[in-house]
Every structure is written in C-alpha cells, then in structure tokens.
Amino acid sequence: MSIHLQRQISKLKEMILSMGTLTEEAVAKATRAIETRDPLLAKQVIDGDSEIDLMEIDVEEECLHTLALHQPVALDLRYVVAVLKINNDLERIADLAVNVAEKVTFLRQVSAPVAANFELPGMAKSVRAMLKQSLDALVNIDPELAEQVRAADDHVDLVHKEMYRVVEQNIRAEPEKVEALVNLLGVSRNLERIADHAVNIAEDVIYLAKGDILRHSRPHPLRNDAAS
C-alpha cells in the first residue's frame, strides 16, 4: 500500500467511526427519550439528524475520491466498499432513531399499566448492544464479534413479533387507546429495523475480514412463520 493510500484509508476509518459514534448516541438518546417520555431529549435526536446526513455525504464523496485516485485492490478495496455500505446503514439507523424520537409525544399519553405490557426497554437495550458490538467489530475487524451480532438479531425479531400479539390484545381491550398502541408498535418496528441495519454492518465486517458476502443468506424467523 502506498503512503498516500494508507493515509486515505486512515481518513476513511476516522470518518466512519465518527459517524458511528454520533449514530450510536442518537439511538441511545432516542430510546432513553421513549423510556422517560422526554420531549426535549427527543428534540435533540431530531435536530441532530442533519449533521449525520451531511457526514454521510462527506463519507461517500471521500470513498469515491479514494476509488478514483488510488484504485485500491484486495483488502483495501474491500475496506472502501464496506465503508460505503456501512455509511448508508448508519444514516438509515439515524433516520430510524428520529422515527423513534418522534413517537414520544404520542407515548406520553399511554398509561403506565398499558406501557408495562410491552418489552420496549429490554428490546431497546438489546438493539443498542447490537449496534455497539457491530461498531466494535468494525474497529477491530473482528468477524467473531460480528457473528454474535447476527445471532442476537433472532431475539429482537421474536420480541417484535410478540409486540403484534400484545398490541392486538390491548386494542381489543381498550379500543379508545388505539392511536397510542399503534405508536408503541411503531417504536418496536423501528427498533427491529435498527437491529437489521446493525446486522448489515456486522456482515460487512465479515466481508471485510474474510471476503464472504452474507447478506440475504439467513432465513428470517417472521417470514418462516408466515410461510408455515
């Protein structure tokens, strides 16, 4: 690797990790805002999204610059490609964190007994852990840790599936609260999607480390149940 390419790869690493830190903070704030029903914290997430959007553009342009000027090969090429894909996943995670934060206004109307029927705090904790592990795997190019993220996704999928059943039961019991209950389900759906993007990042780390492309290679438990 030339010294110029080495510097460029180091720059990309610094940029994507900075974006990852901001995205991780956005998810943490959004989930905390939901748990505490804190509209000011939710507003911080919403207002901070534009910075992450701008970072996504900067990272993409830097990747394209690297490809055009340095024409990397082998591991260096895989790194640039992985950063391009992870960049997109991080931006989508930040958007989903905004979606979660926007639900705070509706969820402030949910009574404590109704909210207690949902496993959102535990689900949020699992999702935050998956995102952190996927970024740690990226920092250390650790495919084993990345595999742990992939394995953890099944639990989040099953919790989200259970949310549908709980929402249905609560709507039948208290139809006047349908709007709040649907918004609770929306939070669950956005958390499940954040977990999916964390898995995408983990799979890109495995691609970076081993050259294996794993996207779309796993059966989805929700689709399997629907087909059976």
Written description of the protein model:
The chain is mainly α and 228 residues long. The chain has a single domain, classed as Up-down Bundle (Methane Monooxygenase Hydroxylase, Chain G, domain 1), CATH 1.20.58. The protein is built from nine helices and no strands. The protein starts with a helix and ends with a helix. The C terminus is likely disordered.
Mean pLDDT: 89
CATH homologous superfamily label: Phosphate transport system protein phou homolog 2, domain 2
What is the overall silhouette? elongated
SS field, number of helical segments? 9
Please report the distance between the alpha carbons of the first and last residues. Answer: 51 Å
CATH level 1 class label: Mainly Alpha
| Rg (CA only) | 19 Å
Remind me, CATH topology? Methane Monooxygenase Hydroxylase, Chain G, domain 1
Please estimate the helix content. over 70%
Task: Quickly give the structural class.
Answer: mainly alpha
What is the gist of this entry?
The chain is mostly helical and about 230 residues long. About 85% of the residues lie in helices and about 0% in strands.
Question: What's the arrangement of secondary structure elements?
Answer:
Blueprint: H1 3-36, H2 39-70, H3 74-102, H4 104-107, H5 112-116, H6 120-140, H7 143-173, H8 178-210, H9 221-227
Key terms for this structure?
disordered C terminus; Methane Monooxygenase Hydroxylase, Chain G, domain 1; 9 helices; single chain; elongated; 86% helix; 228 residues; mainly alpha
